[in-house]
Target: Truncated hemoglobin YjbI
Amino acid sequence: MRVELTKYRVKAGKSELVDEWIEYMHNHMDDVLMNLEGEKMFVETIFREAFNDVEYLYWYSVQDDNHSEDKISETELDEKHLKYWEQCIDKTFRPEDMKAEIVMIPERIRRAMDYNNE
Model:
């Protein structure tokens, strides 16, 4: 299983658009959860931080190691998500991947997440 936490900087002046993006995700949660199933994503969480007048989004995820990186999703949700991404995420900032020093997931939960047994 792959556990990741990555920090992205939001473009200046795009905070309201990030609000809209997050609201869109909340309003389409059924579709979001279906997409996660297809990506073999067990958990995906977005955190938000404002620090020294700069806004950041943090993506935390727990995903099956055997997911397909080549799978290109073309749903309306994906297109909308990518549009928000392009408008909001500052590409001049190198995303910061945090190092997972320890992953604490009880064995019964790990077994429940094991796609290989399906």
